[in-house]
Amino acid sequence: MATIDIDGVRKRFGNVDVLHGVDLTIADGEFVVLVGPSGCGKSTLLRLIAGLEDISRGAIRIDGERVNDLAPRARDIAMVFQSYALYPHMSVERNMDYSLRLRKTPAERAREAVEGAAGKLGIDRLLQRKPRTLSGGQRQRVAMGRAIVRTPKAFLFDEPLSNLDARLREQMRGEIKKMHQDLGATSIYVTHDQIEAMTLADRIVAMNEGLVQQIGPPRELYEHPTNLFVAGFIGSPAMNFIDATYRREGQNAFLVVGEKRLALDERDVADGTPVTLGLRAEDIAIDADPEDPGAIEATVELVEPLGLGTIVHVQALGTHIKALSLAVVEHRVGSRIWIRPHPEKFHVFEEATGRRLERKAQFAAELPA
Amino acid sequence: MSAATLKRAGYWTMHYAIIALYVAFALFPLYWLFKVSLTPTKLLYSEGVRMWPSRTTWENYGFVLTNSDFPRFFLNSVIVSVSTAVLVTVVASGAGYALSRFRFRGKFWLVGLMLITQMFPLVMLISPIFRIFTPLGLTDSLLGLIIVYTAFNIPFATFLMQSFFDGIPKDLEEAAMIDGAHRFTAFRQIILPLTLPGIAATLGFVFTAAWSELLFALMLISKTDASTFPVGLLTFVSKFSVDFGQMTAAGVLALIPACLFFFLIQRYLVRGLTAGAVKG
Fold first, then answer.
1. Closest Cα of chain A to B113: distance in Å?
2. Which BP terms in the Gene Ontology apply to this protein (chain A) (predicted)?
3. Would you state the pLDDT for residue B20?
């Protein structure tokens, strides 16, 4: 097991900068998920760590050793590919012990390792089969088995679940998490699926356009996104964004959205600044008291029952807003209701920069618990 | 029988009739070659055009195999064609892999140059090659022929191999390199076995090209010892007559190695080895 240090790493393909300087330190045994839309550079970063691409600038250190110029084979890391990349002309057993045979591991020990890994993954009866005879889920397991047989310093996962159907994906997600708990291996996992990121990660690295946007535990990214990108990317249903203006009159701060005024804690920004208000669907109550000053009139546009709850799409404040209720919602499309966003859960971002506007410290301290 | 079944039957009859017609058209010259080789020389002119001679004989084959230089030509052709096919395939595999996998400076121009070599008619190059080869002692030599054939076949074979490598996911050798393989080991143990159909196709293509090449063989070789069989066939043409019986017998014999060769590699040509490598 190992620590991985990424220090000012840049990558340029021809004239295109793909990574604009990434800094990240991954602790021994940590599960880090790189998440972002396609083209954000997350896979490139993973390939740089694996040694499949050359680093343009900066350094990567594994266990303190600079690996910039080390070939992939010398880095002692394992990787699970999105395509699985199983060797089609070899049996499952040969696929799994290929790395051990390259290292001249004694046959007896190699067999033990393969059988151990196969047992753990429930593929022990497939060892003599060729990859083409396996289902998607089985291939996925073989690919994982190939990674764990040789207990490498770190595991790299490149969107390993995106070729599986939804049910299988959920199951494998659980198994990957369990495997990490058992092995405690340093893992870096790339995905565009924020649910995978939330469920698997010790820490999430949200990336966009070659830059790290935010690094932190899943809840931190969820509850305190540092900018509009992270706020919009993390969470499902996606956060509602509403254009607003920040106003301050004496001790009172509020947001102006159209005709509506929404009370707010003071932020460290000038009166009259255009901002974006972010509201998570689950932080909006439906069927609020119309007398409540925070209540907003809304028209139901669409009702999506999830089983677990209901997503109600409404037209309010001059835009579309999604609210998530855990109760059964009986509203008809077109009916008028009152919604009430939870003022403590307002996410306010400066419109010009997209950066999060925190509460002013003294106000935060005075807030009732 | 209903009208629909009849229509269907008619359709398939038509279908097979057209295929049969095409096959007959393509194979008829071969049949004629074989027929003439079995016809006794005396009957060849006296019987006129007949689908099958009234009497057949193997004596043309006997004569070609025992009393002519044909076995020598045949052996020369085998040496030249096999060497060329193997050399070209080895070089083209390496070059095709490089073109498929690596970005390097000058790649565009290199590919362009290789394409340009394919644009010139070979006839233009005969005299310069002759001038170069004579002082080097490469005329009248099988080695000279092998060099020329190899040089002319490599560009096309490289493009052919490149397209086969392009069809093999890059992930496979990357997985192997992470598993601990050197790039060359990954190439040899993972990529090459999957490229066998491509290698077979390239071998077959180059072998056939070298086997039937006449122009250079004729120009660069004047000694009987070093002649290949296409040149050898011409020895059956004398100033006053053409010995069709012996010539066709030699032609039939010359077909055998090509057929054998394709028989050996055909299973690689049809097998799709990459099935199951990645999700498909």
1. 23
2. carbohydrate transport
3. 96
